[in-house]
Amino acid sequence: MPRSAVALFRLFALLVLPAAGAGLALAASLYLYLSPKLPSVETLKTVKFQTPLRIYSQDMKLIGEFGEKRRNPIQFEAIPLQFVQAVLAAEDDAFYQHIGVDFTGLLRASVELVSTGRIQSGGSTITMQLARNFFLTREQSFIRKFNEILLALRIEDEISKNEILTLYANKIYLGNRAYGVQAAALTYYGKSISDLDLSQLAMIAGLPKAPSTFNPIINPERALSRRNWILGRMLKLGYISAADYDHALQSPLTAEYHGPQIDYNAPYVAEEARAKAMAILGPDAYINGYSVITTVDSTLQQLADAALRKGLMAYDWRHGYRGPEVRIDNPEDWQNVLANTPVVGQLQPAIVTSVSPEGLSVLTKSLTTELIAAADTSLKNLRQYISENRRKPRVENFSDIFAPGDLVRLAYTEDGLPSLSQLPEAQAALVAVDPSTGAIRAMRGGFDFYQSHFNRVEQAQRQPGSNFKPFIYAAALESGMSPATVINDAPVVFDGDTIEKAWRPQNSSGEFYGPTRLREALYRSRNLVSIRILRQIGIDTALTTLNKFGFDDDSLPRDLSLALGSNATTPLKIAAGYASFANGGYKIEPYLVERIEDLNGEPVYQSTTPVVCPACLSRSTIDSKIGEQNHRTENFEANSAAAEQTNSPTPETARANSRPQAEQILDPQIVYLLDSMLKDVIIRGTGVRAKVLKRSDIAGKTGTTNGPRDAWFSGYNPDLVTTVWLGFRLLEAW
Fewer CB within 10 Å, N side or C side of the chain? Predict the structure, then answer.
């Protein structure tokens, strides 16, 4: 060996080896110092991702989602191979070869630290990124980087490469509240990660480096550039063919924001279920991936929503057009006003641009121009509102009441044609309950949840008027009266301190009809008969019966106005009361949440409310209870045995069998008589319009209060009880 070479080798040994030894000593010292302080990697084996609370209907339709982070954890097998390859190409192409640390990248980072005083490129592998995301901060420091290295080495020792990739794919933040690749696919493309093409997979793979900078919605140009670079890397690494590369490179950017994938939007139901879950689970409800399965049937809910909107809009329109919501004179402001005016109850905002005998030209929220034709029903028979009882004559000249700049509302017909509408001044609520179990099958607490979160089904205390009379009549039948009992429908005056304060109740017609049987008095809703019934049986007797239905003494007036429904109550309580008429005289407790499951599908809560006839849940049992006069226990046992022989078990029946029996609060014979009287309300009384359904199993009762400020209808058949309220605002939350 030449002398010069020997000399150089000795010099290298004298200078480099001591430095290397010092480096190793320093590294060993740091390891001994930091290692005991590092968190346990074992937690990764049982990690729980912060997953939102999801609300489902009974038929497992997603109706609501709550939580700060949008996340849908998936298994490794569900991650497309091309996405794995795209991530490796973008972040760590030697992932399956290294031991968790890329020493070449670390050397590059060390040079940067020495030359600039800070680490810029990082040199992090996917395993190191995983360690940082789970256990460390993003602080740019040597100690944090050393901890990251140590944790990465430990992670590689204890879990497999595929497990590391799965954790990484479910943990990383990818912008727009999306955590994990499945949530990102749903957020940016509205479909599962397994349904994305190569260009879309590469786009998402480009997000971990900088979710804001490479966000395809916020920065489409930079996102496209990042995607194309990743595609080039995939080609270079042999992951894709040249043809795949060319095709993906030419693919347009299709990303746009997609909200949570709600199957059916039922916000009043979702909010009530969320509140129940919070009461049961506490703050963890939002982060542990619980699923709340409600009792709501999505088909019935959809029908209820449509019926409430249609009925409320029809009622409001019958009273006349009240004019534009506002007039914007400057056309330059129209676009901005439309952008900031929300859609309410599916009624779209629009601004009138011109008026002619042919109709109204309007600018819609989507900035398209549409024509509301003069032949459309909304304009053809248009009349202006004066009061709840008066309207102006039919409009002959549209220019008399419309002008450019008017902000109006559009409803669309089934044919997709625009029709003039307006936001109702009244409000409404609807609730439908299973009379055998108390399960709420549909619930809508107002015209539009986003206009008002106030749930009138459970929160609005309103006077039920004549809708309350069946409960008074139940007390009368319990006191020995019958449907054939005759009561005089004649004027009565209750003295006050002055003649002005005297109470002179009247029938809605203002007339009096003399001696009247109870049956007719109920189906024709005679007020004077109801008052005399209450006076005859006594208020205390009536209160005893009303308490059985769940009406508290504190909410009930101790005077004869009680016979006319002067007390305040909620639609839900009324529906629960009517359920006793439908189920043979049992008291049920309405409930919305059937069960709550954890992320693994294991139940953490199950409703235990009482049910009617838990052994069978069959209507035949209820009918036989009403018709027969056998002893209650003998009757129940006989029908339970028959039901067990004829009914095949279902999950719902099995759950019901484990729940307590509902309390019987009315004699079946009384329920039978009252049910017959309430059927007459439909056949020949105030609810005769329901005959259009051509059904013989429907019973119910109407109700109004002075003004009228409130209007009610509660109806039922053996399988469903529904209460609907419509009214105007009082000095209460609205």
Answer: N
Cα dihedral 472, 476, 482, 484, rounded to 10, equals -60
CB 181 within 8 A of CB 83: yes
CB 446 within 8 A of CB 454: yes
Tokens 């992932």 sit on residue:
95
Q: Of 466, 530, 580, 618, which is the active-site residue?
A: 466
Query: DSSP assignment, residue 609?
Result: -
In 10 A of CB 341, how many CB atoms? 17
**Does the annotation mark 466 as catalytic?**
yes
- Gap between the Cα atoms of 436 and 619, Å rounded: 9
Report strand pairing: 383-387 vs 390-394. Answer: antiparallel
Question: pLDDT category, 207, cuts 50, 70, 90?
Answer: very high
Q: Which residues pair with 720 in a beta bridge?
A: 717
- Cα–Cα dist 498/496, whole Å: 5
Question: What span, in angstroms and rounded, lies between the C-alpha atoms of 427 and 456?
Answer: 9
d(CA 65, CA 295): 17
Alpha carbon of residue 665 to chain centroid: 34
| Number of neighbours of residue 1 by Cβ within 10 angstroms | 6
Question: Which one of 91, 272, 458, 597 is the catalytic residue?
Answer: 91
Tokens of 266: 């039922």
- DSSP of 396-456: S-GGGT--TTEEEEEEE-TTS-EEEE---SSEEEEEEE-TTT-BEEEEE-SS-TTT----T
Quick one: tokens of 708? Answer: 């009228």
Query: pLDDT tens digits, residue range 451-495?
Result: 999 999 999 999 999 999 999 999 999 999 999 999 999 988 887
Of residues 111 and 228, more confidence is placed in 228
Could you tell me which residues come within 8 angstroms of residue 233 by beta carbon, excluding any fewer than 6 positions away?
89, 90, 93
pTM of model > 0.85: no
Could you give the CA distance from residue 530 to residue 473 in angstroms, rounded to a whole number?
8
Rounded Cα distance, 296 and 454, in Å: 19
Beta-carbon count within 10 A of 505 CB: 16
Backbone φ and ψ of 450, nearest 5°:
-80, -10
Of the listed ranges 441-455, 623-637, 684-698, the one predicted with least confidence: 623-637
Residue 628 annotated among the catalytic residues of the structure: no
> What is the C-alpha separation between 360 and 402, in angstroms, rounded?
8
**What integer pLDDT is reported at residue 627 of this predicted model?**
46
Q: What is the rounded distance in angstroms from the CA atom of residue 264 to the CA atom of residue 276? A: 20
Asked, as a colleague might, if the bond just before 708 is cis with ω within 30 of 0, I would say yes
What is the DSSP pairing of strand 348-356 with strand 291-294?
unpaired
Neighbours of 236 (CB within 10 A): 12
Distance CA 378, CA 410 (A): 10
Q: What share of the chain is helix, strand, coil (3-state, %, to 5)?
A: 45, 20, 40
